[in-house]
Amino acid sequence: MNATNPAQKPTAHDKHTSHRGTGDTVRIDGLSVSFSTDAGAVKAVDGVSLHVGAGEVLAIVGESGSGKTVTARTILGLLPETATSSGAVFLNTDRGEVDVVTLTNKQLRQVRGPDVAMVFQEPSTALNPVFKVGWQIAEGLRAHGKISKKDARTQAIDILRKVGIPDPETRVDYYPHQFSGGQKQRIVIAMALVLGPKLIVADEPTTALDVTVQAEILELLRRCRVEFGSSIVLITHNMGVVADLADRVAVMYNGQLVEQADVSSLFANPQNDYTKRLLAAVPRIGGGTVEAVERARVRPKGWAESEPVVKASGLRIQYPGRLGRAGFVAVDGVDFEIRPGEVLGLVGESGSGKTTIGRSIAGLTRVTGGSLKVLGHEMNGVSERSFRGSRDQLGFVFQDPASSFNPLLTIAQCVAEPFIVHGRASNAADARAAVDELLEAVQLPKSFGDRYPHELSGGQRQRASLARAIALKPPLLIADEPTSALDVSVQQRVLEVFADLQRDFGFACLFISHDLAVVDIVADRIAVMHLGRLVEEGAGEQVLEAPQDAYTRRLLASLPVPDPIEQAKRREALQELVASEG
Amino acid sequence: MTALLDDPDPLIPAASTTSENGKRGGGGGLLRYIIIRFLLIIPTVFILVTVVFFLMRSTGDPITAAQGGRLPPDELARRIHEAGYDQPLFVQYLQYLGQIFTGNFGTTFSDHQQVTTVLVTYGAATLELAFYALIVAFIVGIPLGMLAAYFRDKGWDAALRIFAILCYATPVFFAGLLLKLIFSVWLGWLPVSGRASIGDELTMQSLPHPTGIYLIDAFQTGDPAVVGDVLAHAVLPGIALGFLTAGVFLRLVRTNVISTLSTDYVSSGRSRGVSEFRLVRKHAYRPALIPIITVMGLQIALLLGGAVLTETTFEWKGLGFQLAQYLQARDYVAVQGIVAMLAVIVAITNFIVDVIAALIDPRVRY
Amino acid sequence: MATTSAMALVVPRKRSLLERLPIVHQVRQSVGVQRGMLVTGLVITAVFVIVAVFAPLIAPYGFAQLHGANGKDFGSQQPPSPEHIWGTTVGGYDVFSRVIWGAQTAASVIIVAIVLSIFAGVLLGLVSGYLGGWIDRVLVVVCDAIYAFPTLLLAIVMSIVISGGQSQVWGGILAAAISITVVYIPQYFRVIRAEAVRIKSEAYVESAKVVGASTGRIMFKHVFRNSTRTLPLIFTLNASEAILTLAGLGFLGFGIEPSSASEWGYDLNKAIADVTSGIWWTALYPGLAIVLVVLGITLVGESMNDLADPRLRGRRAVAATAGETADISVVPGGPNEAPGGLESLEPGAGIEEEGIEVRE
């Protein structure tokens, strides 16, 4: 990475876009932003120059810490007090061009709303829970001039209808919690649109949403540009989203702008090394099929008849309700098997019950119906005491790398836990040799054993987590969204380590993810969950190439691919699919 | 997800989940919540009454406590037997529960009054004092808390926070003594103690329907001088007790408004050009109010504890003053009765407060 | 790929031992007004502790002394004079000496009360929060009931139970401390229980469960050690409440007899009548002592609370050009505690976790 330090800064006026000249909606010139943190000053943005033309969609892409969000927030002057910025952000307003960095608070307020508006990442927190959505939409109108209650309401209903909220006359009086996640994001967009801004800054507008909902919101944003003529600055880490929506792409890394190009040439012909690596790291559907076929080919005879490590039949899991209320049924009548050495990828959106299945296999969630056999134990009605002895045959990798290690213990102490608990070592020092070996297996230096969890990056911690899970060479591993909290390049590395370990140790695995492309890389078979039911299961290529279930087809079609031309076709296919479903 | 499993607090209304299909739950959530919350009053009162009963009785019987040493041993034993204090403790406990269930909290030892009568006679005065104190607390605490949040980390904020801590750090009786010293003794502006001048008190007591709440009674007399006299007596106790609570309110409002100000929806308002002041006053205040109201319920306890001290300081003849008298007289039947009754009052107030909080939060209402 | 191995080369800077000490760390972390408040609080608290420890050296007379070396009585309600710089009380005691000795009483009560309530509250909270089930439900209802009740009234009941209302030196201090303890157990219980419940669902505890660690091992190795972080904060807040409760008890005549020890609340009670006749010195000084001590301890507690919460913590402003450009995820300290301000802005690329399974 150091050897390929992104040095080639492109000029602000790229050859494809220079003709836009001064008609730009926003022009950022040599912007630098520093933050004061506990660890001292951190420069988040370093000399970035950008511009967005009228009606243009500019995607700013980067991984965490790249400074993309800070750059976008600067356009609205929405930085916290700990930030100091230099450079200029020229915004084209009704009153001519203004430099946002130099504006007073009062002037900033005039600009925010009518000239530039923002769409936030998490729709459930971007709406005030105690006010009706109509009131919240009207709030923006009131902030920019007198408007009667009736007019404000009419406008709110109107804009709600435009963003696709059904029955807006009634729903204008609803509170945010009465809407679904996707609808909330539509309302957040409506709040921005109602003021008719020339520029919308959308900060990861679909990241918190499921992939099928994401497709709908992307469609809505596209309409914003067509019907309202707004320019859009789209902040995202998702290359598929970029390919779907953007006209032009700016790639940021470590606070600097490393490449800027129009969307087709960026994907077809990336110039900067970082961009190339970033694109290469994005998982693509179909990427893992070859390996899966190869793995299947070398399996010994009679494998298909061997005793499965996990066997679920009619599995049902219901969470206990509160005070007599019926509990939520997370998993309902699910059948599947995992044979020794096989990786089953479990895919689904939020609320599909996939994590619950993983947790029930590990004995973390109680099975309430049907049968779930894990390593010969029936989990329906199992007692922790009788299962504890078999826990050395089971590993678990958790989703959140930030909390998967006890912050007060060193990595070596944490990884040594399985050895100590199962009597293979008397203390952490005793297990150290084995721990060092494990750290090497996940490609971490031995010296990392002496560090505390917070001294490791997310990807490193996730690999250490893998090391802990395979410490006792278990025949079964459960990986619950192990990469979903990681940047795409880090994710690639963790997936590689995972594949290597699986090959060397030969454990069976339930790999849970919301991302079909990720599951495709590692899994032999794929199972798709939807609202607590298993809707489709089969070999990877079978599910991905010839899906039988309508939901799987929809899920597959909604997944944006990092290729603008291919994505345009997929988008049309999805619309046909949705139209045909009615 | 795990949060649901743990079920950390059955009291938190279960209306936070929203399915992708839009609304869920429909009506009935609030009513259900109110009923469950209401039923929870029973164990609360039961626990407190039980705890107080066994604690008080673990020191021995109330007759020995009050009269021991002053009566010959056989006379003492006879009285103890008459009152049933020689029965097994558990039998006494069941009898006591039975009495409380029928609304009988016992008879005081020193002046042979029903505890319920004591409550009726002196409760009005305490209620009146609490009312004044709450008014002072609201007027002072909430706006200042919002101001402190608005000016956070600036000089004004620091000054207001020090003021809040001082309100809380000053024991009510010391504040009361200082106020008396300055405004009554040195300046002579306000009366030293009591609820009204003796003459006015007699006038009010001779009314056909005295309520015991002097402000109302004073208006009943129709004499502005009486009203003025009653209000003059209320100023110092009201301020002494009110500022204690005001300090708590100020800190609560400040912290909650500041945390709310860092939420996305406030940023969202800011990104649409809503003014900073309006963000504090509208967007941050109302969501911040929900935890504040919940905590206010707990302030009732502080207020009642403070009332005991304030009433003693200002000889405000209320329940707290009376309680202190009974304590001096070692009349533990009276103490136990008053404490048990206060438990009921506290439990009911907390119930009402929780319902109000639920009403403000639309996530519970639907 | 190379990203992560490059990160490995960045060796995190370890904070020195001095910087990691609780108070020192916070003073360094604080800025501006917050630092002012913290330092003021620390100074007042330090003075209080010094006075309490060295009371016998500082106070010119004993707390129950009625006459000087010459055998002559001090006299009742004497105004401040060179012999009695803060005057004498209605009972004929020297006000200055009693205020100084009172610090010792207050400090002893605080220490005993806090030590007792930590043991009881922490243990109960841990068991209740981690094990859950019916024990938890019962304990929560009981503690909530007690928590909602006026602390002063409960303390009175407790002090009646323990000492019958009157008490001697250590008996008095113990009685007061135990009364206060019983009252504050629910507060410790609530805080520790909430922490235990939160930590219980952290991945590292679940991981220990999956590994097969015994309940005892999980509770003490993982839950207990991580749930005690907030304790110093509760100490300070409860210490101030303990002083106020002690003074309240004394004021109502349930404190410590004047001949056993000096207690500010008791002195204030005796001063009620004085004030009416314009005698200010008997009330002013013990009262001010209470206010100052509570103010000092509360300032420390509040500042620590603010500093622990990134949303409430103030930060220095920086020059635009300052600071290295660094990948945020390797900022020393890491995402667990470091870039509070940045974290909210740049929540990490794959934040999908937020929306994925939490709604189940």
Sum this structure up briefly.
The complex is a heterotrimer of chains A (582), B (366) and C (360). Chain B contains 17 helices and no strands.
Structural overview:
The complex is a heterotrimer of chains A (582), B (366) and C (360). By secondary structure, chain A is an alpha/beta fold. Chain A is built from 22 helices and 20 strands. Chain A is 37% helix and 23% strand. In chain A, the strands form four sheets. Chain A has a six-stranded mixed sheet with strand order 6-7-8-3-9-10, with helices on both faces. In chain A, strands 16-17-18-13-19-20 form a six-stranded mixed sheet, sandwiched between helices. A four-stranded antiparallel sheet of chain A has the order 2-1-4-5, with helices on one face. In chain A, β17, α18 and β18 (508-513) form a beta-alpha-beta unit. In chain A, α9 packs across α22 (564-581) and α21 runs antiparallel to α22. The longest helix of chain A is centred in the middle third of the chain and has 18 residues, at 211-228. Residues 1-21 of chain A have low confidence and may be disordered. Chain B has 366 residues and is mostly helical. Chain B has 17 helices and no strands. Chain B has helices spanning 2-6, 29-39, 41-57, 62-67, 73-83, 89-101, 115-150, 155-169, 172-186, 198-205, 214-221, 224-261, 264-271, 276-314, 319-328, 332-360, 362-365. The two termini of chain B are 22 Å apart. Chain C is mostly helical and 360 residues long. Chain C folds into two domains: 33-308, MetI-like (MetI-like fold), CATH 1.10.3720.10; 323-360, no CATH class. In chain C, α6 runs parallel beside α14. Chain C is elongated. Chains in contact: A-B, A-C, B-C. Chains A and C meet through β1, β2, α1, β4 and α13 of A and α1, α10, α11, β1 and α15 of C. β2 (40-52) of chain A pairs parallel with β1 of chain C, so a sheet runs across the interface.
